[in-house]
Amino acid sequence: MNKPAKSLLPEGAKARQVYLSLRDQIADGRLEDGENLPPEQKLAGLFGVSRVTIRRALDALAAAGLVIRRAGSGTTVRSAGRPAKPMAMNLATLMPQLVEMGQNTTARLLSFSYGTAPEFVTSALRLQPKDQVQIATRVRSADGTPFSHLTTYVPAEIAANYSENDLATTPLFKLLELSGVQIKDAHQSVSATLAGPEVAEALGIAVGSALLSLRRVVRDVNDNGVEYLSGLYRPDMFRLEMPLARVGDGSTRHWEPAIGKPPGEPA
User: Fold this and answer.
1) Do 97 and 212 belong to one domain?
2) pLDDT tens per residue, range 223-254
3) Same-domain status, 105 and 45
4) DSSP string covering 116-171, please?
5) CB distance 168 to 143 below 8 Å
6) Which residues contact residue 257 at a Cβ distance below 8 angstroms, ignoring those fewer than 6 apart?
7) Overall pTM surpassing 0.85 (yes/no)
8) What is the CATH number of the domain that holds 62?
9) Distance between CA atoms of 211 and 144, rounded to whole angstroms?
């Protein structure tokens, strides 16, 4: 799998919208390898923009390795620029999958330090404002292509049980357990954001690209916060899934998360 070329979004808000729309259609397979895109004039009509705007968007797609532009033959989707099938994480069996992900992917440590945490982390972990935490930022890759940018905050007294090198080579969940932490549960929220310059460079994507934003607070059996994760994921390479079961009777029948059921197992 080839790593996508780094590129900047095209100039102009409308050109960026066209670029991101076509890029997403290529990423999820709606536009297939070898497929010819409509002529510039038709695309301009479809998006309600000028041909100049379309040209800027197509040039940016070509720079990113997602299309090939040839004079006289138009613009063709290029499969080599498309990421592999997205890594799927099932919310019903998330923790075992996280451990498996750590074993089947590689991590690169970008930064490692100790200090005070931002207020939102201190509040989430229920720490005192002056409490020290270990702050580490890593990029995790699959088959050599980066798909997530992870920043973790761990109370210093726990983090003292493992080294910077350990964090670069071993999944954090394992390090916490080896440190004697008995994990009870976690609370996770998912939203969306856009890639800033530093994250875009680390993930090899365009500045302003859409990202999944995942925040997770992990607690031990004594209800103490032991980890805060702020994760940014490329949606073309990572997705979260949740099985649902139809439960209840009559007018109260509704959909409910089928927690505890492995992927593909009937609820």
Assistant:
1) yes
2) 999 999 999 998 877 777 777 888 888 888 88
3) no
4) EPPHHHHHHHT--TT-EEEEEEEEEEETTEEEEEEEEEEEHHHHTTS-HHHHHHS-
5) no
6) 91, 92, 242, 243, 244, 245
7) no
8) 1.10.10.10
9) 19
